[in-house]
C-alpha cells in the first residue's frame, strides 16, 4: 500500500507541477466551488480558527481563508509550494499520517484531494484525529454521478471521472458519489452535512451548458460535491 501511495503522489506531482490553482480561480465553475468551500469554513468556524489547507499549492486558497478571518496553515507535498500564502507552511503527504498533534486544529480543508489518494479512509481518519472536538473538515471532490454521466451510464458509457486515458482525470483514482462520501465520513467519526454543488453541466459536441440554479436545487446532480463534516 505504501508503494502504491508513493507512486500516486509522484504522479500527482508530475501532473500538477504548473500553476493549477491560479487557473482554477479564473474559471467560474471552480470559483463557485471555492466560494462554497470558503462559505462553509466561515459558517462553521469562529474567527481566528486554526485551519490546515491540505494540498495548498502556491497558497492562493490559504490567502483567501485568511481573508475570511481564519488562521490558515498551507500544507503541500511540493518543497516550494505555499509561496503566495503569507502564513505558516508545512510540507506533508496527504496519503500518510499528518504531522499534527491530535486535537490541535480547529478546521481542515481538503479541496480536490481525496480523489487522488490511494487510501481515502486513512486521510479521513487523520483529519478526524488532528481536529479538536467540534472541529470541522470541509471537503470537495468531483462528483462521480452528475446528471449527464448518469444518462451516459444508461447508454453504456463510462462516467467522465473514471476515464483512465484523460489528460488529468487519470489521476483521479478514487471517485465518489455523495452517499459514498458520507459513508466514509461517518465511518471516520464525522457527522457530514448535506452537500452543496457549483453547477450542473451538460456538454454537447458544440456547446456546454451550465446551471447554478439546478446545482442549488439538486446538488447531487452537480459537477462538484462540497461537504462540511463536524467532529462531535
TrEMBL record:
Occurrences of domain Methyltransferase type (ranges): 53-139
SUPFAM superfamilies in the record: S-adenosyl-L-methionine-dependent methyltransferases
Highest taxon of the lineage: Bacteria
MF GO annotations: S-adenosylmethionine-dependent methyltransferase activity
A Pfam family: Methyltransf_11
PANTHER family for this protein: 2-METHOXY-6-POLYPRENYL-1,4-BENZOQUINOL METHYLASE, MITOCHONDRIAL, METHYLTRANSFERASE
Name the record gives this protein: Methyltransferase type 11 domain-containing protein
Organism: Actinokineospora globicatena
